[in-house]
Design goal:
The complex is a heterodimer. By secondary structure, chain A is α/β, with parallel strands linked by helices. Chain A has 2 domains: 17-65 and 173-243 and 335-402, FAD/NAD(P)-binding domain (3-Layer(bba) Sandwich); 104-168 and 246-332, D-Amino Acid Oxidase, Chain A, domain 2 (2-Layer Sandwich). Chain A has helices at residues 29-42, 76-96, 114-129, 139-145, 173-186, 231-238, 300-313, 362-375, 399-402; strands spanning 19-25, 49-53, 68-69, 107-111, 135-138, 161-165, 169-170, 190-193, 197-202, 208-213, 216-225, 245-254, 264-267, 272-276, 282-285, 322-332, 339-342, 348-352. In chain A, strands 1, 2, 8, 9, 10, 11, 17 and 18 form an 8-stranded mixed sheet that branches. Chain A has an 8-stranded mixed sheet with strand order 5-6-4-13-14-15-12-16. In chain A, a hairpin with a 4-residue loop joins β13 and β14 (272-276). The relative contact order of chain A is 0.20. Helix content of chain B is 10%, strand content 35%. Chain B has a single domain (5-78), classed as 2-Layer Sandwich (Folate-binding fold), CATH 3.30.2270.10. Chain B has one helix at residues 34-42; strands at residues 5-8, 11-14, 19-23, 50-56, 64-70, 75-78. Classes of the chains: A alpha/beta, B mainly beta. At the A-B interface, loops of A face β3 and α1 of B. Bound molecules: flavin-adenine dinucleotide (FAD). Residues 25-31, 52-55, 59-62, 64-68, 196-197, 226-230, 234, 249, 251, 285, 328, 330, 354, 356-360, 406 of chain A line the site of flavin-adenine dinucleotide (FAD). Flavin-adenine dinucleotide is lined by residues 25-31, 52-55, 59-62, 64-68, 196-197, 226-230, 234, 249, 251, 285, 328, 330, 354, 356-360, 406 of chain A.
Chain lengths: 406, 89
């Protein structure tokens, strides 16, 4: 522990070099995590790595998400991947010497219909086989574990059952960005804020050899794009096409109150999810807007719909005042799984398709993308998420576990 | 949902009555090679800017409409049947 009053600035400022071994586009948790693990796990010299961020660190989804981490996914590929992230989260405060404020609340996915009960049962069983703590519970146990829930049968969608995932947690998203960033920066890594990548440079054989930026060209051995909601704008520069479409997702918090909600509550049928933050605010999210747009405008319609649905589930929130609402971009994929790894352009890698589910993956993404860059071999954990899976018809369908956006 | 309106024979209707049908793409030739068919099935332009797109009026006239919209601002630049001329909005 380096003391309560840290005598350090988070990010050191270095002049931008003309050339780096590795250039990472995007200063979110994924980009900074990758930079950190390249140095820590693979001994790559930090000063040979640059993270370029057009805005400020954490300006994207990394600073806008609702901070839920869990591994109760549906497919074996998904479960294994997100479970590795959970292992990393548990040790991350120690590892980065930065308090992630991880609160292990436990996670409920409510089922209000018979078909939803079936889906949750399937998830529970697949989770168990892979060693992930998940089980299907029914009304008595739900009422006991979470007395705040509305268990009335006199509502349009009474609660029938729930997928209970005790390891589900929330943590402080800013701490993830700052923790990875400051450790990378303290080791001499270059983080350049306010620098926008405007072109991907290729040689005559079509191999990626660097980038152009708003502050001049940079040569690079490897370029990785970790820009989530801006992916199409960057892959267009490289001439790489993907199935990604961009949709906004909104969330809001109430005024802070004393602890009253002790679980993370998700309802797919009612399109809502609710948790209480460490600061006492009740944090409520919903689903993505159903059409593609790059507008970050927050809307009143969203507030109306999501408060109505949240109150159906937890009526005691009715008297709280809404304090703040915001919006972020989500790079959605057809199968609700990410797109990671090599592209048809040599030395140009992508880490994208993070939609509404990418925060929990930041740790494992950093680890696996760093391994790919350092060894030039795609780690088994992310092989199923390759871009070519669409052409191969080898999708990793996670809609059942990820369509309520958290 | 953000607010804009789409013109139907019954006047301007709010977007919340419609289902999104995605960006308009040139139709696939029946004898197109596999590679083209796969690209047609999966790949999207996902433009940040002017986009021609389809909407189904699911809670209304039950018909398809084609509009031109700026995806950065959600301004409708051409309603069904209107010609889109660049720089008009
Ligand atoms: C409201 C909301 C709630 C969410 N809740 C959850 C949740 O509970 N759990 C979960 O797991 N996920 C959640 N997500 C998803 C999650 O936030 C994202 O998937 C994740 O943060 C993506 O992180 P990233 O580091 O890949 O990208 P980002 O954090 O978006 O960072 C990308 C960065 O790239 C920069 N950039 C873009 N283009 C360029 C360029 N040309 N040059 C230089 N820099 C560029 C941007 O400025 C941005 O800072 C939520 C998302 C939203 C919007």
């Amino acid at each position: 522990m380096s003391g309560l009053l840290r005598g350090r600035t988070f990010f050191k400022k270095y002049p931008m070099k003309k050339s780096y071994d590795i250039v990472i586009i995007g200063g979110g948790a994924h980009g900074l995590g990758t930079a950190y693990y390249l140095v820590k796990n693979h001994g790559i010299k930090a000063e040979n790595i640059a993270v370029l961020e057009m805005n400020y660190i954490g300006a994207g989804g990394s600073g806008r998400n609702t901070t839920i981490v869990r591994s109760n996914y549906r497919t074996p590929e998904g479960i294994r991947f997100y479970e590795r992230s959970m292992e990393l989260w548990r040790g991350l405060s120690q590892d980065l010497d930065f308090n992630m404020m991880m609160s292990n609340l436990g996670h409920f996915t409510l089922a209000h219909t018979d078909s939803s009960v079936r889906v949750q049962r399937e998830r529970a069983e697949t989770n168990k086989v892979l060693g992930v703590d998940s089980r299907l519970i029914f009304r008595d146990e739900i009422a006991e574990l979470c007395p705040e829930l509305n268990m009335s049968l006199d509502v349009p969608y009474p609660i029938e059952a729930a997928l209970y995932h005790p390891p589900g947690s929330v943590l402080r998203h800013d701490a993830v960005v700052w923790g990875y960033g400051s450790q990378f920066s303290m080791r001499g890594g270059h983080i350049h804020q306010g620098v926008k990548v405007t072109a991907i440079r290729k040689d005559s054989a079509g191999k990626c050899i660097g980038v152009d930026t708003s502050q001049g060209p940079i040569d690079a051995g490897v370029v990785m794009s970790a820009v989530a909601g801006w992916t199409t704008q960057v892959t267009d520069l490289a001439g790489v096409k993907t199935p990604i479409t961009n949709h906004p997702l909104q969330a809001f918090v109430t005024e802070p109150v004393k602890p009253l909600l002790h679980k993370i509550i998700v309802s797919a049928s009612l399109h809502t999810y609710i948790s209480q933050t460490d600061r006492g605010e009740v944090l409520i999210g919903s689903e993505i807007e159903p059409y593609t747009t790059y507008s970050m405008r927050s809307t009143n319609t969203f507030l109306e719909h999501s408060t109505a649905n949240a109150l159906d589930v937890v009526p005691l929130l009715a008297r709280l005042k809404i304090q703040r609402q915001w919006t972020g971009y989500c790079d959605m994929t057809p199968d609700y799984s990410p797109i990671m790894g090599k592209t048809e352009v040599d030395n140009f890698l992508i880490d994208a398709g993070w939609g509404t589910w990418g925060f929990k993956a930041s740790a494992v993404c950093g680890e696996t993308m760093a391994e790919l860059i350092a060894t030039n071999r795609t780690p088994d954990l992310i092989e199923p998420f390759r871009l070519s899976r669409f052409a191969e018809e080898m999708l990793v369908p996670e809609k059942a576990a990820a369509s309520v956006s958290h | 949902m953000s607010h804009f309106h789409i013109k139907t024979p019954f006047g301007l209707r709010p977007v919340s009555e419609f289902s999104y049908g995605g960006e308009v793409r040139p139709p696939l030739a029946p004898d197109a090679p596999d590679e083209e068919a796969i690209a047609h099935l999966w790949l999207r332009a996902n433009v940040a800017g002017v986009q021609k797109e389809r909407w189904f009026h699911s809670s209304g006239t039950r018909r398809w409409y084609t509009i031109v919209r700026d995806t950065r601002t959600n301004l409708v630049l051409a309603q069904p049947g209107e010609e889109y001329t660049e720089g008009a909005a």
